[in-house]
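Async update (no meeting this week)

Hi team, since we skipped the sync, here's where things stand on the single-chain job. The sequence we agreed to prioritize is pasted below, unchanged from the tracker. I ran it this morning and attached the output directly underneath so nobody has to dig for it. Comments welcome in thread, and please keep replies under the output.
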Amino acid sequence: MDLNSDGRPDIISGSWPGELYFFAGKKKGFAKGEQLKGKDGKPLKPGSASTAFATDWDGDGDLDLLCGTIFGKVLLARREDKKTLAFSALEPLSREGKPIVLSGKKGGGDTAPITADWDGDGDQDLLVGVGNGSVFFFANTASPGERIPKLAAPVNLVEGDEERAWGWSPEKHAGEPVRCGVRVKPCAVDYDGDGRLDLLVGDYNTETVEVRGPLNAEEKALKKKLKKERNKIYAELEKQVDERAPKKPRKEWTKEERQAWSKVYGELFEGRRKELDAISKQNEKLETHESVGHGWIWFWKRKTAG
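Output:
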């Protein structure tokens, strides 16, 4: 992707805070990242956990930006001219007059849009990876000569399972269908060279791994004792906080009362932090398994061209 039209490939990236960054390609490596801005000079900021993909969405000969966010939106920033990296204000990408939002049960947010001619009819379609591990395909049904894509209803190419993704292990899920993790980022490419576009999908996942053998009788007794001590501390904290809380239903508390209550809780908790930290350190030595975060790249082979 050559965003600044200098003949060298560049990199664009979203970020957790939301800003978009451009890394210009150099003869060796890439330049320091700079924020991409709108024509008003202000940084483009689609939203938290932003993603960016460069494509000529409106067919005017320059690269626009398709952006995703943690909230499940798909946004478009149109390139103003080829000579500068100035873009129009972000606008929601729509289907049948309604903004595309893939959040909640519809996808889990964390959208990552890209374009590719997935159905092989000569125009660019929309592919979107989402938070629950799914990848959706929106066919472009625009008539020949129409520059701006017209999107059909989404088709689920890769079915995600957010609940299964966390704490995955080969033993726990033996025999179950293989699935990606979460927050997936798709790439459409003919990976195996058979003339058909495949999907490469990056994910985030956690895996439960064994870190030590089973606990002996003495260790089991200690673990039980530590749990009892921790529960006692939290019960005492809860009692102390309740004694100093406003004497009325919580939904009737004023903003000032809520802030005062939070301050009291924080102070009381800090007073017991050393005890709780000591219990946590002992518990860590008694854990037989732990959750390890990682990312995989999945290859989904295309079976048919259509």
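Quick observations from my side:
Residues 255-284 form the longest helix (30 residues).
Residues 11-211+293-300 form one domain.
Reply here if anything looks off.
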